[in-house]
Amino acid sequence: MKGLAGKTALITGASSGIGQAIVWRLAQEGCNVVINYRSKPEDAKQTESIALSKASEAGHTIKTLLVQGDVSKEEDILRIVNSSIESFGSFDILVNNAGIQSDFPSHELPTEKFDQVIAVNLRGAFLCARESLKQFIAQQRSGVILNVSSVHEIIPRPNYLSYSVSKGGMGNLTKTLALEYANRGIRVNAIAPGATVTPINESWTTDPEQRAVVESHIPMARPGFSEEMAAAAAFLVSEEAAYITGQTLFIDGGLTLYADFRETWSA
Ligand code: NAD
User: Fold this and answer.
1) pLDDT, tens digit, for every residue of 79-92?
2) Hey, which end of the chain has fewer CB within 10 Å, N or C?
3) At 49, is the pLDDT very low, low, confident or very high (cuts 50, 70, 90)?
């Protein structure tokens, strides 16, 4: 994809699922990758070694960096961004991927659980964006931010209030930053995955009955895969998308098309 080879991308929560697939796809396109992980160095190392092989198979020589850090902690974010700049001199692409969810009826949702989800999914994304924007402005080169949102940016999800609120907020984070920095050559977009086969969804992906229930709500009757999310992510951060900013691209097999209206149920 145009304009990715030789760039440097920082991806948060990159040792599994969608983040890992984005690392691999960007490596394949010739990007240097900074792989942030929270708690599993062995998974991060494996992600790195597969990234190096994918790049080399595609004829690219890339550099990689592993950085442990918790995006709910401001001091960790400063360290993650500073390590990227120290190692690569600059960086061009931020992918705010780290995310968690929490399942409680809203009237029983503990305050600390609400705060935790917002701290990782929304405040973490804001802080990573803020620190990256400072760097993009200082290096006087265009930069790109990609937020990994969710279909729950627009679909309310009962029992997942904090998650829905965080992704709804991410939609506005994307648009506001896009507007604020458009005239400095900085683009900000989001991808919004639908139900995707990753560790966050083990409860239904590994249970055939539950998986069938999920699939019954998806017009394309199947879940998405991380590589499909990574392909859209690579496009949006590449120069192929040079005129796209402030958009959330839904990648959901039609989930946001109101599947219940497949057959008309009113006159
Ligand atoms: P995942 O659990 O494999 O990935 C989440 C990653 O974030 C993990 O590697 C985890 O270690 C990391 N992480 C969590 N808290 C962190 C913290 N405090 N600091 C740094 N890293 C942290 O699941 P996934 O499905 O790949 O999720 C990736 C993103 O995609 C999330 O933002 C999620 O909300 C979003 N998403 C996923 C789906 C889906 O169906 N899988 C759908 C919509 C959106």
Assistant:
1) 999 999 999 999 99
2) C
3) very high
217-267 tens-digit pLDDT: 999 999 999 999 999 999 999 999 999 999 999 999 999 998 888 888 777
**Residues whose beta carbon lies within 6 Å of some atom of ligand 1:** 12-13, 15-19, 38, 70-72, 97-100, 120, 148, 150, 193, 195-196, 198-201
The type of residue at 133 is L
Which structure tokens are listed for 110? 């503990």
Max CA pair span of the chain: 64
Q: What's the 15 CA to ligand 1 centre distance in angstroms?
A: 9
Angle, to 10 degrees, between the axis of helix 124-138 and the axis of helix 161-181? 20
98 and 38 in contact (C-beta within 8 Å)? Answer: yes
Axis crossing angle, helix 74-88 with helix 124-138, rounded to the nearest 10: 30
CA distance to 52, 53, 86, 103, 142, per residue, from 59 (Å)? 11, 10, 26, 44, 26
CA of 100 to the centre of ligand 1 (A): 6
163 catalytically annotated: yes
The DSSP-derived string for 190-239 is EEEE-SEESGGGHHHHT-HHHHHHHHHTSTTSS-EEHHHHHHHHHHHHSG
